[in-house]
């Protein structure tokens, strides 16, 4: 199932200031037997985006999620409650439940995202750190996706044939586990959306081992800008991902992961020409941090048998 179809939710009721949306987890977007954590969070964000569609604050600005129990391949509900509606921001609490058990609880701040290309965004009145400032961060991937070598996602990912990725780890240095790739949807009917960004934030390499499962315990996402329209400078199906894990400790391999999600100048292996200065035109769409564990893959497989 295509990603945008796999995160479809629909409103079913509203009572006592709680709005309820329903959907069903799709088996293609799993890590072995368990739905990918970013995919699960995408369901919550999609429901909240729909909830805010008639309000002044349309865009998620910040999301904090605590994963209390592993999600399963079954129907779910998202219960949304508004904590505060202010002049600039709206605060929501959303819970994802399956069989009346809370699987994920999240706090979301909605507002209005600016476009990095909006006239006046770089004016003296705007507080932005963007090129051509020498202090501005550029996309930390140095190979243009049109010429980058391609590899498949880990076979444990049920969606390994859906996104495409191209690694550029040889250009990134530093301590810990640094990981960089271009990743995109293969199907031309797909597009990167606000709701899909947490999924892209949760497919990086957590640790130097492929025989483990890395269940997410907490995940934070701060959205920076709106997603630019398709152009010669920006793809609508591909993003750049840079992640870093610096500490792994304890019997459960508890670790941190920091992730940046960037626009991409083209689709992977598209044959597009790498125009000089293309890195200066890319924009960081969101940054994410998470705490995750490192546990035997057998624990994941056991979840699928429940």
Automatic annotation (TrEMBL):
Domain Acyl-CoA thioesterase-like N-terminal HotDog: 26-108
SUPFAM superfamilies: Thioesterase/thiol ester dehydrase-isomerase
InterPro entries named in the record: Acyl-CoA_hotdog (IPR042171), HotDog_dom_sf (IPR029069), Sec_Metab_Biosynth-Assoc (IPR052389), TesB_ACOT8-like_N (IPR049449)
Gene3D superfamilies: Acyl-CoA thioesterase, double hotdog domain (2.40.160.210)
Pfam families, alphabetized: 4HBT_3
Protein name per Swiss-Prot or TrEMBL: Acyl-CoA thioesterase-like N-terminal HotDog domain-containing protein
Species for this entry: Gymnopus androsaceus JB14
């Amino acid at each position: 199932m295509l990603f945008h179809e796999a995160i479809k939710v629909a409103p079913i009721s509203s009572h006592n200031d709680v709005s309820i949306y329903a959907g069903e987890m799709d088996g293609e977007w799993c890590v072995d037997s368990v739905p990918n954590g970013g995919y699960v969070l995408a369901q919550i964000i999609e429901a909240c985006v729909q909830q805010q569609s008639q309000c002044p604050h349309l865009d998620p600005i910040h999301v904090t999620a605590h994963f209390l129990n592993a999600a399963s391949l079954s129907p779910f509900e998202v219960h949304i409650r508004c904590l505060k509606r202010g002049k600039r921001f709206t605060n929501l609490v959303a819970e994802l439940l399956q069989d009346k058990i809370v699987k994920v609880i999240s706090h979301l701040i909605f507002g209005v995202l600016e476009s990095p290309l909006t006239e006046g965004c770089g004016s003296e009145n705007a507080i932005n750190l963007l090129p051509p400032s020498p202090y501005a961060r550029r996309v930390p991937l140095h190979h243009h996706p049109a010429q980058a070598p391609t590899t498949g996602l880990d076979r444990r990912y049920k969606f390994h044939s859906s996104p495409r990725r191209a690694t550029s780890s040889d250009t990134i240095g530093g301590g810990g586990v640094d990981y960089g790739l271009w990743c995109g949807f293969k199907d031309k009917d797909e597009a990167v959306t606000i709701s899909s960004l947490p999924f892209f934030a949760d497919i990086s390499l957590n640790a130097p081992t492929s025989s483990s499962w890395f269940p997410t315990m907490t995940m934070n996402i701060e959205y920076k800008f709106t997603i630019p329209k398709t152009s010669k400078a920006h793809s609508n199906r591909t993003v750049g991902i840079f992640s870093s894990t610096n500490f792994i400790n304890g019997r459960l391999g508890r670790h941190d992961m920091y992730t940046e999600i960037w626009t991409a100048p083209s689709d992977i292996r598209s044959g597009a020409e790498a125009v000089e200065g293309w890195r200066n035109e890319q924009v960081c769409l969101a940054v994410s941090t998470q705490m995750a564990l490192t546990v035997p893959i057998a624990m994941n497989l056991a979840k699928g048998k429940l």
